[in-house]
Amino acid sequence: MASPSQWIAGARPRTLPAALAPVLTGTAVAAHHHEAVGWKALLALVVSLALQVGVNYANDYSDGIRGTDADRVGPQRLVGSGLVEPALVKRAAFLSFGVAAAAGLVLAATTAWWLVAVGLVCVIAAWFYTGGSKPYGYLGLGEVMVFVFFGLVAVMGTTFVQTGSTSRAPVLDSLWAAVPIGALACAVLVANNLRDIPTDTESGKLTLAVRLGAERTRLFFAALVLLAAVGVVGLAATTTWWALTGLVLVPMAGRPLRRVLTGKTGPALIPVLQQIGVAQLGCAVAIFAALTLTA
Question: How many separate domains does the chain show?
């Protein structure tokens, strides 16, 4: 039986900055337009964190029962290692999705009911990343969906539930704000899949990294860091030039970028995931400070 600490590790707490960053950034845009609502931002954070934990448990379950995690390079998984019965991990995933749904219903009831449909799509996307008979994560579509849901939907949704506005200015600002957050979330996944190319190839998991090959995946990782920087510049152009402090992501991403571009493989890539996650959070905190303090 898994211990509480192993369950916590199974929730992959190192991925949680990817859930915090879009809420910080979306709230910053709302604050820039003098429409930030604290309790709605907190509920949005509950939704984001619960979805992140849910998708982590869902991936643990689905990859575990397929045997994809039988020979891992990265941290131990609950199902793949045999620590926990698959049904229990599946239950933990849906419990997390339930928490996200409950918080999301409150936001929908106080903002717009069509958000219920958005939330349902988010849960479906979270489950079928590695779940179902044809998971899209095994078809090379994981990065696209991460950019959409952990970038565009998370940031723009956080802004919308606070402003309630579909006017051009907040929508455009939140769109620009979503670019660096989504791009860096993708970079985390790319680094993970780059590390796992040998085992994913053997198990038939055709991630984008497997399809591109190691060298082109490394260039794609660098392109995502560049795209994140471009997004910060775009946000600064539509809000305040103080938002350029978000370019702190560039020096923060320097070390993991060197690891990727110099050909590191296997366990040597494990620190890259955390370092890019920290860069993403650093970018979000800088944007939050810039937009809230100059509002």
Answer: 1
Q: Using CA atoms, how far apart are residues 162 and 19, in angstroms rounded to an integer?
A: 17
pLDDT of residue 180: 98
- What is d(CA 255, CA 285) in angstroms, rounded to the nearest whole number? 20
Instruction: Give dist(CA 235, CA 30) in Å, integer.
Output: 13
Say how many C-beta atoms besides its own lie within 10 A of residue 120's C-beta. 12
Domain residue limits at 47: 16-293
pLDDT (tens digit, 9 = 90+) per residue, 159-176?
Answer: 999 999 989 999 999 999
Q: How far apart are CA 141 and CA 31, in angstroms?
A: 33
Q: Decide if 6 is inside a domain.
A: no
Residue 7 lies in a domain: no
Instruction: Give the length of the chain.
Output: 295
- Which of the two residues, 17 and 42, has the higher pLDDT score? 42
Helix (H) or strand (E) holding 59: helix 38-66
